[in-house]
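Example (one chain per record):
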Amino acid sequence: MYKIVLVRHGESIWNKENKFTGWTDVDLSKDGCKEAILVGKKLKKMGYSFDLAYTSVLKRAIKTLWNILSIMDLLWIPVIKNWELNERHYGALQGLNKDETAKKHGKNQVNLWRRSYDISPLPIEKFDHRYPGKEEKYLEIPEKKIPLTESLKDTVKRVVPFWEKNIVPNIKKNKKVIIVAHGNSLRALIKYIENINKKNIINLNIPTATPIIYELNEKLEIIKKDIINK
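Predicted structure:
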């Protein structure tokens, strides 16, 4: 039996301001830091430990993981950061207030952009200041892989191969793994792990700083799932 822990980052500044974030590298809010520390305390109290950690290259996820590991006295374990665990790229919506966007485009349209499986928001242009190809952390990524917008389906296409190639082999070596990522990158992974169809994935929401714990058999089929609520 294998066990993995998934955690969405704590509340970010833009979560607090109700803005679309995507790949914009915003920080945790004060409450988000507190949430991450609380996760660490809960996991430690429950007797969890980890051999290896994965996260995205976005600071709200990195700092959430850092706070968790710090509380658990596990800062020494290897941490693998990869852009393929980044949040879904929200295209031209990034930085916009969600309520104001709904007033402009209508709630139904915004809901399609946010929750549907294969509908992407309007893309940004490469000259846009929000284009991630300008950032140093993405300079080694082939330009064709850098998104201008993404649907959840697009996010699945990068998250699942990373899971299969990089994370699964370590799980099968009995490494105790924690993954700290984002609402949509975790939705993408959970869709795959739980074999959720594209209709039902619309209803899945991942709360901030709420550990999701899977026990898996040798075929990586789910034996048990627990959610540690706040």
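Caption: The mean pLDDT is 96.
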